[in-house]
Amino acid sequence: MIELLQPGTSFLLVGICGAGMSSLAMLLRSIGMDVRGSDIANDGPEAERLASLGIRVMSEAEAAGALRHDEVVVRSSAILPDNAVLVAARGIRAGVLHRTDVLSDVASQYFLIAVSGTHGKTTTSGMIGYALAIQDFAPTICVGGHIARFDGAFPSEGTQRKQIQGRPIMVLETDESDGSFLKFHADVAVVTNIDNDHLGAYGGNFSNLVGAFARFSQQCAERGGLIVGCGDDREVARIVQALPRHVLYGQEASNQVQMGYHFRSNTATVAREGMEQPFAMERGDEKSYLNAVAACLACEAVGSPLADTLHVLEGFPGMERRMQVLADHDGTVVLTDHADHPTEIRAALQAVSVRYPGRPLTLVLQPHRFSRVSMCLEEYGPALAGVSRIVLLDIFPAGETAERPEELNERLRESVKTAVGDSLAPQMPVDQMLDVLRVSATPGDVVLFMGPGDVNKLGLRFCGLLTSGNSVQCQTAGSLERRIKREND
User: Fold this and answer.
1) DSSP H helices in 261-404
2) Could you report the per-residue pLDDT of 2-15, keeping only the tens digit for each?
3) 402 part of a folded domain
4) Which of 265, 297, 370, 484 is 20 to 30 A distant from 97 in Cα terms?
5) What does the alpha-carbon distance between residue 126 and residue 117 come to, in Å, rounded to a whole number?
6) Are residues 114 and 261 in the same domain?
7) Co-location of 113 and 70 in the same domain
């Protein structure tokens, strides 16, 4: 398929505003391809970001009518066969490829640092890419998210780039949810953890998921590559230790590189072979420090000393939608976070407690995917322990269907209620809920909108209610007022 990657080849990406597809669109554009796409959300912030790069985003109906037979149509696993653009592509016999097939072809031309894991891979990938960019390696950074206040993910043609083994560097976040990460053969592979998620792609069997991570790591080893794994995870440690070039990191003493977290000061110590180095991130928490150590070891594999990368990551600005501040108004802080799995929810809530100690927290949680909630139903309640007030929204389906979604939503609510008691707010219409939150907000409160679905739109609407007629400290890309208007239209 390399012949498709000639400058000027035309690609149409279906669902282009999704995190992975948006990243692929920008990557293809950066290497001289002609790129446009379609999305049901064709006028939101991601569409605006793409348009600023000369990438046109159309509605699905418009794209279906404008499709050319010489365009390569690209889809992800989230796009269903009855999508209007896919139907049109079949009608004119246009080529249709999976996102990962295109991305793996591009990645084969780079020295590839590929990050895998159930949790933490977006932030870890962002950290690696950011650290290498700041140290003038000029990597291509293909991540399912955006590094805050950073626009150097896709160096333009002609940029002076450091090469490893004769190739420029790509930092890539892989995706185990559909098994597609096995299409990548990394030069440096990072495995952050393996948790009980996305088992539908693995026959409902956790051991099959573990086996896929083992194959991903083995593919790197077969290239003579380095595997960086979190040794605190038993399955990761077992996989990585069996490979010839590896390094284990984590908080346990058995790891080759240890991270000691100091809760009171929210700092860390990184130790290896008797040497210790203090580490204090501006936006740190326990999981961020652990991810940062993985990032440092990946950067070390291409020639960046660990101490230098630690220093750079002290100022890492974070990832959008990962503990991102939407507003800080009259002492009330509004945050948004992408966490969906109970393990991630627990980690995000711990981060809030570290960054905003002693402050009351209201959590607006939108659970994600019927399959995940069904599998982890009894884990949500314990993960939410200690939250002052919880607003539980209905499950965001993300393209999935369920026989009786109302019943599953009610079972989840009952389970959470059993665990947290009166901290669970009563159900009410969204507009009423937002107004209640506005009226009850007091200085010192933290309000967190959580989930990968469309709950971020509610966070932006709440900011509009909270700050109406007042100035606001906004730490997101673009004008808050413009974004709120766009989301409400």
Assistant:
1) 286-300, 306-313, 342-355, 370-376, 380-383
2) 567 787 789 999 99
3) yes
4) 370
5) 14
6) yes
7) no
pTM exceeds cut of 0.90? no
pLDDT in tens, 113-169: 999 999 999 999 999 999 999 999 999 999 988 999 999 999 987 788 999 999 999
Cβ-Cβ contacts under 8 Å for 383 (sequence gap 6 or more): 342, 343, 345, 346, 349
- Indicate if 303 and 344 belong to the same structural domain: no
What CATH code is carried by the domain that includes residue 56? 3.40.50.720
**Which CATH number characterizes residue 134's domain?**
3.40.1190.10
Identify whether residues 277 and 332 lie together within a single domain: no
Q: In this structure, what token pair is assigned to residue 435?
A: 């107004």
For the segment 173-186, what is each residue's pLDDT rounded down to a tens digit?
999 988 899 999 99
Beta bridge partners, 361, equal 446
Query: What's the pLDDT tens digit per position in 306-350?
Result: 999 999 999 999 998 888 999 999 999 999 999 989 999 999 999
Model confidence pLDDT, tens digit, residues 231-279: 999 999 999 999 999 999 999 999 999 999 999 899 999 999 989 999 9
Query: For the chain, how many structural domains are there in total?
Result: 3
Which domain, by its residues, includes 439?
A: 324-488
Task: Indicate if 398 and 272 belong to the same structural domain.
Answer: no
Calculate the CA dihedral of residues 232, 186, 142, 191 and round it to 10 degrees. -10
Contacts of 205 (CB under 8 A, 6+ apart): 199
**Are the C-beta atoms of 325 and 352 separated by less than 8 Å?**
no
- Flag whether 318 is in a domain: no
Q: Which of 108, 182, 170 is nearest to 143 (CA)?
A: 170
Task: Write down which residue in 78, 99, 120 finishes a domain.
Answer: 99
Among the listed residues 284, 286, 308, 281, the one whose alpha carbon sits nearest the alpha carbon of residue 296? 308
pLDDT score recorded for residue 158: 78
Instruction: Say if CB 63 and CB 39 are below 8 A apart.
Output: no
Domain boundary among 74, 99, 124: 99
Query: Quick one: 295 and 348 in the same domain?
Result: no
pLDDT band at 72 (very low <50, low <70, confident <90, very high): very high
Considering the domain boundaries, does residue 272 fall inside one?
yes
For residues 260 and 371, state if they share a domain.
Answer: no
Tell me what pLDDT residue 3 has.
62
Phi, psi torsion values for 327, nearest 5 degrees: -160, 150
Residue 1 lies in a domain: no
Higher pLDDT, 208 or 452: 208
Task: Extract the runs of DSSP E, i.e. beta strands, from 254-296.
Answer: 257-262, 267-272, 275-279
3-state helix, strand, coil in the chain (%, to 5): 40, 20, 40
Find the helix or strand (DSSP H, E) in which 416 lies.
helix 405-420
